[in-house]
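QA checklist item 7 of 12: single-chain prediction sanity check.
[x] sequence parsed
[x] length recorded as 155
[x] structure emitted
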Amino acid sequence: MPPSMMVETQIGDFSINYMVFPAFPKAGEKGRINLYASNLDTGESFTGTVRFKVRDDSWFAGEEEVLGSQLPDDYVFRQGFVFSQDGDYIITAEFESDGEPYVIDFPLRVGEAKALAPLAIAVVIILLTLVGVSLLQRRNKPGSRVGKVKQEETL
């Protein structure tokens, strides 16, 4: 298992590098996000404040929770975290430069990934059942298209 996860991206005038330690944190375990932002044209490091937030990565996600606002330490913004529950989360890093807002979202899995949630399995079974019943009813329905074609051919 790798000790960290690193992602590089570009947004607006900035090149963004962020790392998550450990790469796959577990609930109750301390972790850290390191973010580095540099201007694409000048190569200068961003020196303002970066705000870190988190929200559930689900259809019924609740409100965002602020993890903290950080100033750079040797041009790196460091934000610690501890999640109490396993799950999929979206970490958001926000900052402003020259009056322009910058928002970077990235996924974070805490704990072991589940193969399929029980709710997803139930939805798939219900959908397959409905499709099957619909096909059977259409096939057995008198006056269906198949019956009309055969009648027209015999005339």
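[x] summary fact logged: The first helix runs from residue 118 to 140.
[ ] second reviewer sign-off
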